Amino acid sequence: MNPINALPRRVLAALGVAPVVALLMFFFWPTATLLARAIDTEALSSTFGRRGTWNVVWFTLWQAVVSTVVTLALGLAPAYVVARFEFTGRRLLVAVLTAVFVMPTVVMGAAFLALLPDSLDRTAWAVIGAHVVFNLAVVVRTVGVFWERLPADIESAAATLGASPWRVFTTITLPLLRPALLATASIVFVFTFTSFGVVRVLGAPGTRTIEVEVWRRATQLGEIGEAAVLSILQLAVLGATLGWSSLAQRRHSRALDLEPAAVRRRARTGIEKRRVGLVSVTTALVCVAPLTALAARSFSTPSGWSTAAWTRLGRTEVRPGIRLGLDPIAALGNSVENAAWATLFAVLFGAIASLAIAASRRGGRMLDIGLMLPLGTSAVTIGFGMLITFDQAPFDWRAEWWLVPVGHALVATPFVVRTAVGVLRSVDPDLQAAATTLGASPTRAWLAIVVPFLWRPLAVGAALAAAVSLGEFGATSFLSRSGGETIPIAIEQLVGRTGSLLQAQGYALATMLAAITILLVVVVDSTGQMQQRTPPTRLDALPVDQTGRR
Amino acid sequence: MTPTSVPTTRRTFAILAGLAIIAAACSGSDDTATEGAESSAPAPDTAAPPSEASTSPDTATPEITDQVEPDETITLVAYDSFPDADTSLNDALEGFTADTGIGVDLLIAGDTGTMLAKAALTVGNPEGDVMFGIDNTFLSRAINDGIFEEAASPISADLPSELTAASPDGLVVPVDFGDVCINYDIGWFDEAGIAPPSGLDDLIDTAYADLLVVQNPATSSPGLAFLLATIDEFGEDGWQDYWSALAANGVEVLDGWTDAYYGSFTWAGGGARPLVVSYGSSPPAEVIFADPARTDAPTAVVESTCFRQVEFAGVLTGTEHPVEAALLLDYLVGEMFQSELALNLFVYPSNPAVALPQEFIDFAVVPEAPRAIDPDLIEANRSDWIDEWTSIVLG
């Protein structure tokens, strides 16, 4: 049964075109070009013949599975609290979570190491722990946006009938949440499966994910063929996992009377208050601790505390005659500009793609998986693919400024889609049926009923997309750049050089990046809240069947 | 993802139509870009004639300068430690434009390995015209991959033969050099009352147990340089035993320089190890970028452990501006540009006519006989050495 099936095929096809074309153009074409050029039989036999390859694949797989399961399990509590309750600092908490998500792993890894007990330093457990903390934001945001619209009346009914809170959670809430959980699980899985920086900084020396190994083969050893083979291997494992997850997600998605706006209230009983307090404070501590450690390092020098990193951040002259060649304000400008474009692209394509995916069957599933693939393809492969594909007129784009935000959008779009599709699939089809009965054309009914449900997930997706771009995830770090650094690149440059002042300045910039991200998420979140005020009035005017659906 | 799997032909058609529209739009925008470039390029009467304006006689021979297109801009590809803008090194590049009328765009291509991998993928259709910074551990691969072509005009600077030895035919030009050495924390050894190690052999002595942190040669360029230093010392068949002994003596291995220097080294990061693999220029950098300011270096290098890294520049194969590229290459080893290298990249200029800054004279050691391995030998064995090292040290 298809929830928003009522959409005419013509409209559906028109919707699908843009994301499909963009995906073919900026992902499949460059990736296929690189793979086709690099892979030969020698690369195949040497990669598969090496015992190390299978060690890498095995480590990649098990750490990703464990990371995903633990992240989901631990993320549910904060997701619940943030989705269901209104409390002081709620938005700030979400923003801080997101800030942790975008921090460059070089500095975040260092902050994490400072906090971990020495016995855990540079072990698989440090890697998994960092994955969990970094990806909490993904769970809280993508599950939260679904959870906050789940009608609470079913749960209340069960509770009234005598079910314990645990029973209500396991028999009612959890099954209802399943599509959102699966969507989130797949995104966290992809993220941890392709983990790069965390593994390099926190993992035991020599432990590598496939992503790290692709990078090492391609850039350090110049074995581009082997890198390409590994890249395919990575895609194959991921593709299988995602295909399964997408199937499961559809099977479990059902129409719900999703509330048009978030249903949140203040905690009432003492037990609720304690629960909300405990969860939010614990979550905040987990996220604030590394951020604080980071900020502290910007004031720390080998000979005590100093504010010099901050007071001299904008000053280019370090010593008379010696300039740093690094303008944090310009880097900030570059980052924000890239993020703005990337968010625009990602939201635009993500919105269109989500509508198309939610409304169609087979093609939708294909598009869904297709959009996730850039996230799971090694960044080196896409970056180098773009380099050798967009190098001839009329596609001589490798030096174009917009290729960077397009690259970020490739990685960010899945966040938008994952957040939106779950919500869209659960829109009650009776609403649309009712609108048609009242005389609206199918397209108009769809515009009036389904589209308004998009705003809130889009706002959430936009914040994540901007964060992804600010954090410089993905292929763009392998594109050559001219005309200035972005903040993450400036940070890596600073902490990659000798000199206590430079080191502290790197952490000062990282602190700035965290602050900007927090601000950005708070702002985007509140605009999302405002936008969602409009549709409910229209919805409320329609007869809504409160009992017809499970 | 194939559009044909979508059931309706109508949808397939729509996709194809969309592709066609996008393709049309793209080619359209490209046309305007080229037109713009063409119309701005030939404007000789308004521009200052470069050959006459050039006052520096050592830039190039006159007949070469005559071939230079006025208002031409070429691209210098460099690794990511090269400053983007704003430093005296960038000012020195502008000096080239002032001399010749040729503009220079800077393209940052990533770390040296990444920069080389990209150049290898784009041979014949390069991202830029001149590449700066391929070091001797990557040189053979760069040359084998054919990323460099012969410069259109000779180099006027007189460069030391030990630097040019790696490229006797002059395909690439040495632009700078530096060393990777064991650095030690002076204060820590003073306090502990132990003498700092004097060479590689000391490091396997139990007196220095658990004191050294190195980088993984599989993922770090100084890490690889240090491995090469040990291969130079103990030979292709002897280094394995040395590393087994190092491992038994508690050497710590980290993936990157930043983790090692700022995470584990006693001086910079408050770590527990007073010996770290870093650069020969790290001690002067510790003075120059110290906060609060200081007049003495807190760290020093163990001279006999130093491995020499020489960095080269060359003209990229397939450049559309061979004449201008050759002029830039010559300028890169000229005194104007060379004199800015030390304080901006923390390397030594290859041009011996250039004086060193005072901090380098005071706090850096240029080893008399640095360790080196033939680039061809490195290229032939790098992968095997790294695999072997991994199984010995990381098990």
Record the SSE blueprint.
The complex is a heterodimer of chains A (550) and B (395).
Chain A: H1 9-38, H2 41-49, H3 51-84, H4 90-102, H5 105-115, H6 124-147, H7 153-160, H8 165-193, H9 197-202, H10 210-220, H11 224-252, H12 270-297, E1 300-301, E2 304-305, H13 308-311, E3 317-319, E4 322-323, H14 328-359, H15 362-376, H16 379-389, H17 403-425, H18 429-437, H19 442-449, H20 455-470, H21 487-495, H22 500-531, H23 534-540
Chain B: H1 9-40, H2 50-53, H3 62-67, E1 73-78, H4 88-100, E2 103-108, H5 112-121, E3 130-135, H6 139-144, E4 148-149, H7 161-164, E5 173-185, H8 186-192, E6 212-215, H9 221-234, H10 239-248, E7 252-254, H11 257-264, H12 266-269, E8 275-279, H13 282-288, E9 299-316, H14 322-332, H15 335-338, H16 341-345, E10 348-349, H17 358-363, H18 375-394
Parallel strand pairs in B: 1-2, 1-3, 6-7, 6-8
Antiparallel strand pairs in B: 3-9, 4-9, 5-8, 5-9, 5-10
Helix pairs in contact in B: 10-18
3D structure, described in words:
The complex is a heterodimer of chains A (550) and B (395). Chain A is mostly helical and 550 residues long. Chain A has 23 helices and 4 strands. Chain A has one domain: MetI-like (MetI-like fold, Orthogonal Bundle), CATH 1.10.3720. Chain A has helices at 9-38, 41-49, 51-84, 90-102, 105-115, 124-147, 153-160, 165-193, 197-202, 210-220, 224-252, 270-297, 308-311, 328-359, 362-376, 379-389, 403-425, 429-437, 442-449, 455-470, 487-495, 500-531, 534-540; strands at residues 300-301, 304-305, 317-319, 322-323. In chain A, the strands form 2 sheets. A two-stranded antiparallel sheet of chain A has the order 1-2. In chain A, a hairpin with a 2-residue loop joins β1 and β2 (304-305). The longest helix of chain B has 32 residues, at 9-40. The model of chain B is unreliable at 1-62 (pLDDT under 50). Chain B is built from 18 helices and 10 strands. In chain B, strands 1, 2, 3, 4, 5, 6, 7, 8, 9 and 10 form a 10-stranded mixed beta sheet that branches. Chain B is globular, with a radius of gyration of 25 Å. At the A-B interface, α1, α5, α10, β4 and α15 of A face α1, α4, β2, α5 and α11 of B.
